Amino acid sequence: MTARTHAVYSHKTADVVLIGGGIMSATLGSIILQLEPGWDICLYERLDRAGMEASDSWNNAGTGHSALCELNYSPASADGSVEPTKAIKINEQFQVSRQFWSHMVVAGHIGAPRKFINPIPHMSFVWGDGPADYLRRRYEALKPQPLFETMEHTEDHATLSEWAPLVMGGRDPKQRVAASRVEGGTDIDFGSLTRELTEFMEKNDVDLNFGMEVTNVVRGSDGRWEVSVKDRATGEEATVRARFVFIGAGGGALHLLQRTGIPEGKGFGGFPVGGQFLRCGNEEVVDQHNAKVYGQASVGAPPMSVPHLDTRFVNGKRSLLFGPYAGFSTKFLKRGSLLDLPLSLRPSNLIPMLAVGKDNMDLAKYLITEVLKSRESKNEGLREYYPQADGHAWELITAGQRVQVIKKHPTKGGILQFGTEMITSSDGSIGALLGASPGASTAAPIMFEMLERCFPQQATAWQQKIKEMIPGYGVKLNENPQLAREILSETAKTLQL
């Protein structure tokens, strides 16, 4: 989608204002447009195009997080057992998103699915006795679950060489290795998907505004929200008055949430974590790898720093990505300000943030180690997953910023939360989303939940339309195997998987 600007007005009214032009706002706007086509919707994005921050193809892993290969969603407990509950929940959420995308394709609202989604096996890979034993227990816990019934597992070097030749080439034949694989995984270009959704919104008269930064969100005397916006090119300012506001600005959401003054938003803080990837476009190398291979995170590493060797499809071209290598910056957005972190400090979140700092020294140590890593050290990390790699032939790219949620805790003072956090006002007039992974992959169920919270009066009237969009909505597919198989089959056909 090309940049669009509008004549700056001094005042405007709208039913819905969406702040941020990423996958969350695009998903919410696309849903509301179908539930309430008569509502006046405005979207404001500070950059000149949709989907260019955290949703951008090179700023996230694009895995389609469904807990098929991400080991942090099914960790071992103290006694060594593996509890599948969290992995099942995330897969259930992903299936809602997948049904939504399928509906959008069938309805002709977005274009060819291969523009944004491609089939690719998801694979977990570990080495050593302890990790291999754990991966076997994980397989045994997940395999009986209907949503994971196609999972395979092996420790056989020959089989692994067929699954992932680059991972096994040059590896010690005596090394104990283990892998679990699901062939029906996906790679998703969330930047492209975001732009497909915003183009659908534009065609249906949603007021899209790019290059416009939201500077404040305050409640007016009549109860409506007054959203202050500024044209980044001209400096002109305007105010938009809205019945409902969604703050889906990624790393920029915390500052705006704090400015609303709603009590539900007090006490939240954010800890930014950056990242880098190694990228390979050499077709001879790329063509030998057809999988997303996830390993185990280092001690103290945040979940989004789990190393992975990924096949990616961006703008129709295949490439390989390895990483991430974590970094630290006080910016909350890739194109943000170094003052983002200090300006987020408030009396209400100071204790939680200090408590998290005290209790997460291993994370601090990990980040310092990562920041100080040389290029050769990064190449050594690549060779753990691709032993014969020529690291110097790979390009080092900077990925997007992620802001991990810090929230109050009754006994610890504060905790660092990995995942997403939805905050809504008591009257349902404003909602915000903080956090990171699995994020984009679960955008649809998160946005449906936001609508249920904020518009309880309309929820009943919307049920039929939602069921048309999401045939399995409100049903736990893992507890309904036949329906799960039908929906997986139908969405695979529609999305050309």
Automatic annotation (TrEMBL):
<dbReference type="Pfam" id="PF06039">
    <property type="entry name" value="Mqo"/>
</dbReference>
<dbReference type="InterPro" id="IPR036188">
    <property type="entry name" value="FAD/NAD-bd_sf"/>
</dbReference>
<keyword id="KW-0816">Tricarboxylic acid cycle</keyword>
<keyword id="KW-0274">FAD</keyword>
<comment type="pathway">
    <text>Carbohydrate metabolism; tricarboxylic acid cycle; oxaloacetate from (S)-malate (quinone route): step 1/1.</text>
</comment>
<dbReference type="GO" id="GO:0008924">
    <property type="term" value="F:L-malate dehydrogenase (quinone) activity"/>
</dbReference>
<keyword id="KW-0560">Oxidoreductase</keyword>
<keyword id="KW-0285">Flavoprotein</keyword>
<dbReference type="InterPro" id="IPR006231">
    <property type="entry name" value="MQO"/>
</dbReference>
<comment type="similarity">
    <text>Belongs to the MQO family.</text>
</comment>
<protein>
    <recommendedName>
        <fullName>Probable malate:quinone oxidoreductase</fullName>
        <ecNumber>1.1.5.4</ecNumber>
    </recommendedName>
</protein>
